[in-house]
Amino acid sequence: MEFTACRIHLIRIIRYLCELINNAKVMDQKINKPGHFFALFVLLAVMTGISSCEKFTYTPPAVDPNATWLLSTDIQPIFTASCVSCHGGAVAPDLREGKSFQALTKGGYLDLPAESSELYSTMTGSSHTARSTAAEKLKVLYWITQGAENN
Ligand code: HEC
Fold first, then answer.
1. Which terminus has fewer CB within 10 Å in the chain: N or C?
2. 134 and 60 in contact (C-beta within 8 Å)?
């Protein structure tokens, strides 16, 4: 994110400098000392570039632990998008819509404390960590902390 934003601006700066060099050549024929203006423009361009890099720094959206996290609209969509391709009945737990709640509670995947529950620890473990984002893992964690209701 950050890198891409900076690169775009660096390209703009380089383009800007090329135009300046062209202008400076034209100016050279008219005025005797374009060097000072040129140096000032270079400095301004570099400073603009640096400040725009900071402006584009990416901050991931925070997952609020105090919000109410719902199985139906927050958790099940994660299962449906990233898990049911494998956990579609053959591999336990069955995470398909309408099946996931029973499979997770009966299988003891949601036991507190939430951090060490089978569901959360599998999602953060090495075999599964790449299958969901950090924000998705937190949503699951907070849903379990809040009692893992069929809500
Ligand atoms: C590419 C296939 C695949 C995907 C996608 C997948 N899993 Fe799994 N998962 C497995 C397999 C295979 C096992 C059983 C072996 C193991 O524990 O790794 C398993 C086991 C589990 C277990 C049980 C671990 C245990 O010790 O009993 C849980 C809980 C789980 N997965 C959750 C998830 C969740 C949540 C997602 C989606 C974010 C997910 N899985 C996505 C293949 C997958």
1. N
2. yes
Query: Whose alpha carbon is nearest atom 14 of ligand 1?
Result: 91
Contact predicate 139/69, CB 8 Å: yes
What distance in angstroms lies between residue 122's CA and the mean position of ligand 1's atoms? 7
Q: Cα of 151 to ligand 1 centre, how many Å?
A: 23
- pTM surpassing 0.85? no
pLDDT for 38-85, tens place per residue? Answer: 778 888 877 776 666 666 666 766 899 999 999 999 999 999 999 999
Q: How is the chain split into domains, by residue range? A: 5-56, 71-145
> Please, are residues 14 and 20 in contact by the beta-carbon 8 Å criterion?
no
**Ligand 1 site: residues with CB under 6 angstroms?**
82-83, 85-87, 91, 93, 109, 118-119, 122-123, 127-128, 131-132
110 touches 148 (CB < 8 A): yes
